[in-house]
Specification:
- By secondary structure, this protein is of the alpha+beta class.
- It has eleven helices and eight strands.
- A hairpin with a 6-residue loop joins strand 2 and strand 3.
- The N terminus is likely disordered.
């Protein structure tokens, strides 16, 4: 075993040089870290969502003559999306189960970012704190404990920029037509109604409501109220806006941002005040859905 690798296994904290990183690559792989987390839907969802953004950034960067996915296109959006899931890791008084699950999310996100050639110091250090915390609490098995130094060495090594498009899993959703979804943003909640799911089980068609809420609303406060529509510059009326969403797979949402308020809601949002061009919908991913939700400005109650 090379002396540099032995130094890492013995607990030295030096940051590895490029030649040493090649030695670490054979010790543990990104997918092996994710598999060891026993985190249910969290790890694969974090990996998918990082890859959705990295894929778009990779092609945009290539058109500009840049290498790989770009930090600004991926990391801020991922951190904002997973803010609520990570919050318990920053609260020492949070219940142990909440903190451990938050640490698992941090490890999954930091690992997934590193895999696509990106890193974030705050997330990496939170993930490394999580590795130690999970070991101290004996939350995972001996196999996780025995690979601690390898995992930390990988996360602290310089990520290698992407040279080809990252793949994602096939689009599937476990949402259903008639579901009422509450989207938690910082400081307010936005609600959407799923008209239908095309498929089989592919894309929910979502229309957002105009009203927003300071706290998670009761379904009775939302059902039958006015729909939100996208406003185009120079037009008097906003358009009916239906969003055909990819990447919204699980409820409960592993990122703890999108919540199921009610099921089987047959009353549609009232869009009679909006201009209807007869468009079936606009294809968006989950991050674009959240951007649309941030644009909703019908007043917060």
């Amino acid at each position: 075993m090379p002396a540099e690798t032995l130094a890492v296994l013995c607990g030295r904290s030096t940051i590895p040089a490029a030649s040493e990183r090649r030695a670490y690559a054979g010790l543990v792989r990104h997918q092996q870290i994710l598999d060891r987390l026993a985190a249910g839907a969290v790890a694969p969802t974090a990996r998918d969502e990082v890859r959705i953004l990295a894929q778009k950034s990779f092609f945009a960067a290539r058109r500009q003559g840049l290498e790989g996915a770009q930090h600004a296109d991926v990391v801020p959006a991922v951190k904002e999306r997973w803010h609520f899931a990570l919050d318990a890791a920053r609260q020492p008084c949070a219940p142990e189960s909440d903190r451990m699950n938050a640490y698992k999310a941090a490890i999954a996100i930091a690992t997934s970012l590193h895999e696509v050639g990106l890193g974030d110091h705050e997330l990496t250090e939170l993930a490394i704190d999580g590795i130690h915390a999970l070991n101290d609490a004996v939350w995972l098995g001996d196999d996780f404990l025995h690979r601690t130094d390898d995992m930390i060495a990988l996360l602290r090594s310089s990520p290698v920029p992407l040279t080809r498009k990252p793949t994602t899993r096939e689009t599937i959703t476990f949402t259903r037509g008639g579901d009422l979804l509450a989207i938690r943003l910082r400081g307010r909640w936005v609600v959407g109604h799923i008209h239908l799911v095309d498929g089989p089980n592919k894309h929910p068609h979502i229309e957002l409501y105009e009203r927003t809420f300071a706290e998670r609303p009761d379904p009775s406060e939302v059902i039958g109220t006015r729909a939100w529509g996208y406003s185009y510059e120079g037009r008097d009326r906003a358009n009916v806006t239906r969003l055909i969403v990819s990447g919204l797979r699980h409820l409960p949402d592993p990122a703890e941002q999108i919540h199921l308020l009610a099921s089987g809601v047959v009353v549609l949002p009232d869009n009679s005040h909006l201009h209807d061009e007869g468009i079936v919908g606009t294809h968006v991913d989950v991050f674009e859905l959240l951007e649309m939700a941030r644009s909703v400005n019908g007043g917060t109650f």
